[in-house]
Amino acid sequence: MIRSQYFLYFGVLGIFLPYFNLYCYHLGFSGLQIGLLAALRSMTLVLFPLIWGALADRFHIRKPIYILCNFVSTSTWVFFLFTVDFWPMLLITAFYGMFYSPIISFLEAVTMDVLGAEKKSYGRIRAWGSVSFIVMVLVIGRIIDLYSVDIILVLVLAGSLMLAVISLRIPTIETLKKDFLTPGAGSLFEKRVIVFLFCAFLMLVSHGAYYGFFSIHLENLGYHSTFIGLSWALASTAEILVMVKSNRIFNRFSLENVLFFSFLVAAVRWMILFFSESTAIILLSQILHSVTYGTFHMASILYIDRLAPDNAKTLGQAVNNGLTYGFGLMVGFFINGYLYETTGSFVPFLISSLIALSGGLFFQSYQLASRKRT
Q1: In whole angstroms, what is the distance from residue 127 CA to residue 20 CA?
Q2: Which is higher by pLDDT, 357 or 58?
Q3: Which of 164, 225, 273, 315 could be joined to 70 by an S-S link, Cβ 3.0–4.6 Å?
Q4: DSSP 3-state of 38
C-alpha cells in the first residue's frame, strides 16, 4: 500500500513538475510571474507541513489529516480548469498548497514507521515513485507534442483523485499522544540539526533553476516536449539505480559523507548546464540526478530520522521538507525567476552551482570541526 502511494504521488509529480511551469510559459506569463507561482507553492511547504505535522503528533490524527489533505487539494485543483489569468491562479495556488504541502512529509514519516529496523531499505520503496515519474514524463511529453500542454491540468486531476482514494487505506501507526510542543521536539533546535537544515536549504535553493526553469530552458534551446520528457525520465532512471541499492550504499558510507558528496556533484551538474547546449552532454548531466536528488534525498530522510526523537518523527520530517523543499525552493524560485527575466536561462545555473558548493563546504567544515571537538 505504501508503494502505491509513492507510485501515484510521484506519477502526478511527473506530470506537474516538468510541465506546469511550461504551461504557464505558454499562457504568456513572465519569468518573474512563473517564479512567483512556484515560490508560493514552496512557501506553503514551509508553514503548513509544520502545522499539520504538529497537530498529527499532538492529537494522534496522522491518518485523518493525510486523507483530508489529499481530498481537499484534489478538489482545489479543479479551479485551475476555469482560469488562465495570473492573479486567480496565484490564489488557487495558495489554497492548494495549504493542503498539498504536507502529503509527502506524512508519507515519509509513515514509511519510516512501517520499515522499522529496515529503514536503510527505504530506497526500494521510494523507487516505485521514480518508476511512475519516468513513465509519466515520457508519455506526457509525447502527448503534449501531439496535442497541447493544456492537457496536463486534467491528467493531474485524475492522478490526484486516485491518490486521494487510495489514501483511505494508508496504515494506521499507533503512537502515544503528545503535547503540542514536546520536550523531544526541542532537539530539532540543536546545533547539528540547524547546520544540516541550513545546508540542505542551500542545496534546494540551488535546485530552483532546475525545477523552475529547466523545461523552459530546453524549449528555448529548440528542444521539443518529447525530448524534455526524455531528459527528465533519464534523471529519474538514474535515481532509481541508487535507490534500489540504498541498503548497500548506507551500509558502506556514512550519511555525512553521502550528503557531502551529493553537494559536490550538484555543483558540477549545474555548472555543466551553464556551459553546455549539447544534446549528449545535457542528457549525461541528467544522470547526476542519481546523486543530487537520489542519494541526497535518501540520506536527508535517514539523517533527520536519526536526529529526531521518537515523539517528534512526523514533525521532524515536516521541518526537513518545509525548510528545504519549502523555503529552499521558494527562495530558489524567486532568485531564478528574477535571473531568468534579466539574464536569460544560462546564468541561473551558474549561480546555482556556487550555492550548492557553498552548502557542501559549510556542511563538511562543521562535520570536521565536530570530530575534532570529540
Answers
A1: 23
A2: 357
A3: 164
A4: helix
Residue type, 2: I
The three grid cell numbers given for residue 355, joined into one nine-digit string: 550555492
| Amino acid in the structure at residue 256 | E
The cell numbers describing 293, all together, are 536528488
Question: What pLDDT was estimated at residue 176?
Answer: 47
What is the distance of C-alpha 80 from the center of its chain? 22
Report pLDDT for 185.
Answer: 60
Residue 187 has pLDDT above 70, yes or no: no
Sequence ranges of the domains in the chain: 2-373
State pTM to two decimals: 0.82
Other Cβ atoms closer than 10 A to 183: 11
d(CA 87, CA 19): 20
Which residues, other chains included, contact 178 with Cβ-Cβ below 8 Å and sequence gap of 6+? 57, 58, 184, 311, 312
**CATH no., domain 2-373:** 1.20.1250.20
Cβ proximity of 65 and 117 under 8 Å: no
Among 329, 240, 243, 227, which Cα is nearest to 282's?
A: 227
